[in-house]
Amino acid sequence: MSERSTGDTGSKSAPILALVEETIGRELLDAEQILIEELSSSNPYVSDVLQHITRFRGKRLRPILLLLTAQAAGGIRHEHKVLAAVVEMIHLATLVHDDVLDDAETRRHVATVNARWNNETSVLFGDYLFTHSFHLASSLETTYGCRMIGRATNIVCEGELSQIKERGNLDLSEEAYFRIIDGKTAELTALCGQLGAHYAGAELAVVEALERYGRYLGLAFQIADDVLDLLGNERKTGKTLGSDIEKQKLTLPLIRLLNRASEADANAIRQLLLHPEENTREKLAPYFANSDALAYTQQRAQRLAQDARQQLDVLPATRARRILAEIADFAVQRTF
Amino acid sequence: MSERSTGDTGSKSAPILALVEETIGRELLDAEQILIEELSSSNPYVSDVLQHITRFRGKRLRPILLLLTAQAAGGIRHEHKVLAAVVEMIHLATLVHDDVLDDAETRRHVATVNARWNNETSVLFGDYLFTHSFHLASSLETTYGCRMIGRATNIVCEGELSQIKERGNLDLSEEAYFRIIDGKTAELTALCGQLGAHYAGAELAVVEALERYGRYLGLAFQIADDVLDLLGNERKTGKTLGSDIEKQKLTLPLIRLLNRASEADANAIRQLLLHPEENTREKLAPYFANSDALAYTQQRAQRLAQDARQQLDVLPATRARRILAEIADFAVQRTF
Predict the structure, then answer these.
(1) Whose CB has fewer CB within 10 Å in chain B, the N or C terminal residue?
(2) What domains lie within chain A, and their CATH numbers?
(3) Which of B45, B126, B143 is nearest residue A143 as measured by Cβ atoms?
(4) Helix (H/G/I), strand (E/B), else coil: A67
(5) What is the ipTM of this complex?
(6) How far is B213 from chain A (nearest CA, A)?
């Protein structure tokens, strides 16, 4: 979905990024190098598309999470760099397929694969990235990485399928919403924490805590992204917005808005959602102004960020741990 | 692509199937059971689609190849049954994505996922099957299976991407055609031979010979399928035909037809291919009648079947080996 976070942490994230750079800059570069080498093909067509999609890349949230949790949980090893490339590749695969599902035109100010080439190329190219990531994961010594990655990506797909099924359901419950984003977004960030800790040799309790950290963080990030899709600025975010409304996907702010509106207002809002137009976002604005929906959504996201931070208590006080805590704060503060 | 063989071996294959049943019937049933158990989901939507696609299943060419080569190369172990379920799942994933690429309406007399649900569901469901197959492969003890499967499926995607790129290229060479089908079809049948032999404990030379057997067989099968797409009967094959022409994908019979036609005929044929219509297949028939294209195509396929059979020389004379040889013959004799 275009509303899935690309992990773009924008200009406000500069202080965090500087800290990340200082702490795991070299390892991040190594992971980047692995990704670039893996994503090169002797087939000129494949190579063209590969070249193009590297321009989608955001601030590399998932590799950063994986490497930072590794650092915080015992130290970064070669496996972590490979796995950082793997999770980024999986993320790219989901973005390419999301864009074809959403008929999105741009991604990070760049034409999507479906817009630049066609839907067929997008579908196959997403498959190419998925299978490539699995192949790369299988270069590790044990099957642990493959198992965890296979399981998590499968859950991601199931989450996305549920989302498709619930499209147009204007009675979607908060619970169902959370189940969907837990699958489509949080499962992969949870995987980053889990793999980071496991391959650093951390004990099971730490692995589980960092998996939860990643999960709560992913949920908070996704909620923030859903708010952006409703209220964001296309120029700043660099992607097509309003696609949740266009695709009749209910997100937390809308669910709360409908739940708390008067019957008359709720009916009017439903009418707007049933017939999405270019300016539906603007038409919804007055309802949001009279509702606690945005404050409530923000509060839920903040609570999740706090839950994420709490998981870090199992770790010794290191710079990596401090940055992980800051990323949790940032996830819900960004407005772009 | 709808022209990718489903492995439907139809009624003429009855004697072979009876032999298969006798030889590896129990193991095939075990693999089937693993597939069914794996392809069950607590999510009712996912479960519905899963239920639906089991109706696409053909004669299980890939699991049969994997189990027969295992039997012929040393004996079937538990790993083979798991891997047989894995390759069938991958094959199903490619069929689901092929149908969305081809806008196909039916597959084995059943509505395709895109026709019954929508393109989004098809894309995600294919992803679901891909990731599930990798997860299942990672349940094995070593990473060998994951590595070989990751590599092969990646090559399959690259082959399909090349095919998309060459669509509309009416000057496609035979060499380019063979490169495409080697990727999109033969890589997976080669994988079946390789995995069958490797997990049976066969020595490297045998593993490589059975990989080649699978590759030649896959090429022969695909050529036969491409002929069917041109000349077949929709009722018998149970799928939408003529889609290669509709999608302007040049296959071996058409490449040969164009190469050997007079300039005037070649121009007329190109015009037909540039503006595909419902009855383009019929309009091409007189050109085929005056050409060696079909005989030549048949000859190429037969030669490949023979090459496949020759690879079996490394094996001791067993019933499994004999059936593998018969499958090679059958691959090019089927007309449905």
Answers:
(1) C
(2) 11-325 (1.10.600.10)
(3) B143
(4) helix
(5) 0.88
(6) 23
d(CA A151, CA A116): 32
Interval A141-191: pLDDT, tens = 999 999 999 999 999 999 999 998 999 999 999 999 999 999 999 999 999
Structure tokens at A255: 């669910």
pLDDT of A334 strictly over 90: no
**What confidence tier does B221 reach under pLDDT thresholds 50, 70, 90?**
very high
What letter represents residue B152's amino acid? Answer: A
DSSP, collapsed to helix, strand or coil, labels residue B258 as helix
Inter-residue long-range contacts of A211-214, CB under 8 Å, 24+ positions, other chains counted? A212/A307, A212/A308, A212/A311, A213/A69, A213/A308, A213/A309, A213/A311, A213/A312, A213/A324, A213/A328, A214/A65, A214/A69, A214/A186, A214/A189, A214/A190, A214/A308
Ranges A6-15, B133-142, B253-262, B325-334: which has the least confidence: A6-15
Q: How many beta-carbon contacts under 8 Å exist across A and B? A: 149
**Token digits of residue B246:** 């509709």
On the CB side of A78, CA atoms within 13 Å amount to 4
* Burial class of residue B284 (count of CB atoms within 10 Å of its CB; 0-12, 13-18, 19+): buried
Q: Is the dihedral of CA A94, A100, A106, A111 positive or negative?
A: positive
